[in-house]
Amino acid sequence: MAFPTPGSPVRGSRSGQPIMALLDLLGRSWAMGIIWHLSAGPRTFRQLQDYCETISPTTLNKRLKELIQARFIERTVDGYALTPMGKEVFALLSPLGRWANNWAEGLKEV
């Protein structure tokens, strides 16, 4: 498999603990951005490329393939869309995103 998988060595874990495999996958360039953007609904390759601004077509294609293999996204007639598992991971990431915004604001106050 081309994406980080539980049970196989990944960044930060030789044993491939599931949480480490997930964080390795989500930590790859644009992976979370793609999930975040697809949370609003299906998008075409071109729409994703426009959203990601500086991403090369090669990198976007690679990331899409990894997220498809991980079962977070799928191809539909409307483009790429989150799967039920992708929607679940987005729901888990959303509070973390809100927390990060609060954290960023707190850093400005220091």
TrEMBL record:
Residue ranges of every copy of the HTH hxlR-type domain listed in the record: 17-108
CDD domains documented for this protein: HTH_ARSR
GO molecular function, one term: DNA binding
UniProt keyword annotations, A-Z: DNA-binding, Transcription, Transcription regulation
PROSITE patterns: HTH_HXLR (PS51118)
GO BP, one annotated term: regulation of DNA-templated transcription
PANTHER family: HTH-TYPE TRANSCRIPTIONAL REGULATOR YODB (PTHR33204:SF37), TRANSCRIPTIONAL REGULATOR, MARR FAMILY (PTHR33204)
Protein's UniProt name: Transcriptional regulator
Source organism of the structure: Sinomicrobium pectinilyticum
Lineage: Bacteria, Pseudomonadati, Bacteroidota, Flavobacteriia, Flavobacteriales
